[in-house]
Amino acid sequence: MQNAPLSYGSDSSGLVCGYLFGRAPDSKGLPLDADAAREWLSAREQHPQEFIWLHYNLANTASEKWLHEHTALPEEFYESLHEGPRSTRIEMADNTLIAVVNDVLHDFSFEPSDISTLWLSVDKQIVISARRKPLKAVDGLRNAVRNGEPIRSSVELLIHLLRDQADALIKIVRNAISTVDEIEDNLLAGKLKTKRASLGALRRVLVRLQRLLAPEPAALFRLLQRPPVWVAEIDAQELRESTEEFSMVLADMASLQERIKLIQEEIAALVNEGNNHSLFVLTIVTVLALPINIIAGLLGMNVGGIPLAQDPEGFWVVVAIVASFTLIAGWLAFRRQRDVS
Q1: Do 81 and 64 meet the contact criterion of CB atoms below 8 Å apart?
Q2: Which has the closest alpha carbon to 118: 144, 91, 88?
Q3: Is 332 exposed, middle or buried (0-12, 13-18, 19+ CB in 10 A)?
Q4: How far is the C-alpha of 269 from the C-alpha of 333, rounded, in Å?
Q5: Residue 131: is it exposed, middle or buried by C-beta count within 10 angstroms (0-12/13-18/19+)?
Q6: Is the pLDDT reported for residue 4 higher than 60?
Q7: 305: pLDDT strictly greater than 90
Q8: Entry's InterPro entries (predicted)?
Q9: Which residues, at least 6 apart from 192, have a Cβ–Cβ distance to it below 8 Å?
C-alpha cells in the first residue's frame, strides 16, 4: 500500500481556505477551492468589483510553488517568508501592503515557543495569507467569514485580523493579571508559594510578546500618512483605530511587567530577610555554645594542675561558670540585635 501524501490541513496546493467577496457593503465570502481560485486569478481584470482571500499553510511545501506560478506577488513578500523573527509591521511594496503579523498559537501556555508568524500580501483585489502553525487570530477571522460576516474590502480583512489579534492579546494579558493578582494576595497573606524564577519566566514571555506583537511605529506612521490610493478613507481610519487599540493593550502589558518586577523585588526582600533571620539564629547558637566548648576543652586535657579536680563541689562550680558566661554572651548578642533592628 502507498501512503497518502501529507496534507498538513490543506489541499495539494497548500490552500487551507479561500473566499470570494463582492464590493457590496454586505458582501459575504463564498468558499473557493484551488481550481476556482486559479480561474478567478487568471481573469481578475474582468471582476474589478470583487476580491479574494486565499489562506495557505507554508508547512506544505507546495504553497510557495503554487503562489509563484499563479500570482504576481511582490518579491518582498517571498523575502519576508524566510526572514527571522521580527516585530509586527505593515509596509508598502509595489502598491501592495506587505504585513508580517506575529500571533500566538491555539494552545498558548505562556511559552516563548507558542508565538509564530503570519505573512500577508494585500492589494485591491487579492489577499494572500500564509502561516506555518495554526494561529488564533487568523483562525478567528476564518470562522467569522465562514459564519457569514460581511467584509467590504481587502483592507477591512486586514483590519479584522489585527483586531482579532488584539483581542487574543487582551485575553493573554487578563490571564496574566489574574495570575499576578493571586501571587500578590498570597504575598500579602504571608504565604510565599511562588518562586522568583516562575515570575521571571512570565515576565520574559510578556516582554517577547510586546516586542514581537507591537507594530513598528515608523513604518506604520508612514503608511497611515500616505496610504495607497486604492485604500478607502474609512479603511484608513479604521486601520488607525486598530493601531490605537494595540497601543492600549501594549500599555497594559508594560504596566503588568512593572508589577511583576515589583513583586520579584518584594519576594527577594522577604527571602533575604528570612536568610538573615536564619543566619542570626545560627550565630546565637554558636555564641551560646562557645563558653561550654572552650571550658570543656580545657578541663578535658590530661595534664596536671586542673583546678577543682579534687573539690567535691567542682562540677557545680564549673556549671555555674559556664552558665554565667552563656547568659552574658546571650544578653550581649540579643541586645546588639535589638539595637540593629
Answers
A1: yes
A2: 88
A3: exposed
A4: 24
A5: buried
A6: no
A7: no
A8: CorA_cytoplasmic_dom (IPR045861), CorA_TM1_TM2 (IPR045863), MgTranspt_CorA/ZnTranspt_ZntB (IPR002523)
A9: 186, 267, 270, 271
Provide the whole-model pTM. Answer: 0.72
Q: Are 196 and 267 in contact (CB under 8 A)?
A: yes
The per-residue pLDDT of the chain, averaged, comes to 80
Which residues have a Cβ under 8 Å from the Cβ of 84 and sit 6 or more positions away?
none
pLDDT class of 6 with cuts at 50, 70, 90:
very low
Q: Please give the distance of CA 96 from its chain centroid, rounded to a whole number.
A: 30
The span from the CA of 144 to the CA of 142, in Å, is 5
CA dist., res. 120 & res. 97, Å (int): 8
Q: Structural domains in the chain?
A: 15-269 (3.30.460.20)
Q: Which residues contact 102 (CB under 8 A, 6 or more apart)?
A: 85, 87, 88, 115, 116, 117, 118, 212, 213
- The Cα 218–Cα 273 span in angstroms is 47
Exposure class string for 23-42: b at 16+ Cβ within 10 A, else e: eeeebbbeebebeebeebee
- 340 to each of 271, 309, 332, 333, how far by Cα in Å? 19, 43, 12, 11
DSSP SS3 for 48: coil
Report the length, in residues, of the chain: 341
The C-alpha cell that represents 327 in the structure block: 547568659
Separation between Cα atoms, residue 11 and residue 37, nearest integer Å? 13
> Does residue 17 contact residue 36 with C-beta atoms inside 8 Å?
no
Cα–Cα distance, 328 to 237 (Å, whole number): 81
Maximum C-alpha span of the chain: 124
pLDDT tens readout for residues 202-239: 888 888 777 777 666 666 777 777 888 888 888 888 88
Burial of 252 (0-12, 13-18, 19+ CB in 10 A): middle
Q: Which string of DSSP letters, residue by residue, matches 111-169?
A: -GGGEEEEEEEE-SSEEEEEESS-BHHHHHHHHHHHTT----SHHHHHHHHHHHHHHHH
